Amino acid sequence: MVTITVLPHHELCPEGATVELAKGENLLEGLHEHGINIDHACDCSKACTTCHVVIRKGFDSLEEMDDIEGDLLDRAWGLEPNSRLSCQCFVAEEDLTVYIPKHTLNHAKEGHH
User: What global pTM score does this model have?
Assistant: First the structure.
């Protein structure tokens, strides 16, 4: 198991969180299973940036992003060198520290009109 430390986010986890995920598990799906409901407006089809996160620790353990993810991230709010789409991250063997940006460019939330 790999330890995922989620830094405090004003809405999704105000106190921060620490969860355990299995190697190979999708970061977005794993966080959802633990009640950290990161937005994902495109249903993980790599068509938006609503699941944008910044990997503060463990970034180099993740598989390299492809060109499509890189192009999408260019449009993400709060882009940093260690930014990723959480729907495209699969946990490796190294613990991760994840920062969820305060805003996304797509302000529509699933299930809300």
Answer: 0.89
Return the higher-pLDDT residue of 106 and 58. Answer: 58
How far from chain centre, in Å, is Cα 104?
A: 12
Tens of pLDDT, residue by residue over 69-89, are 999 999 888 899 999 999 999
Parallel, antiparallel or unpaired: strands 17-21 and 83-85:
unpaired
Q: By C-alpha distance, which of 12, 15, 20 is closest to 95?
A: 20
Token reading at 87: 């729907």
Which of 101, 106, 102, 60 minimizes the C-alpha distance to 82? 60
Range list of H helices, 1-113: 27-33, 67-73
Provide the 10 A C-beta neighbour count for residue 86. Answer: 24
Please identify which residue in the block is written with the tokens 């299930």.
111
Q: What percent of the chain has pLDDT over 70?
A: 91
Q: How far apart are CA 96 and CA 108, in angstroms?
A: 28
Q: At a CB cut-off of 8 Å and minimum separation 6, what does 89 contact?
A: 26, 27, 28, 53, 55, 62
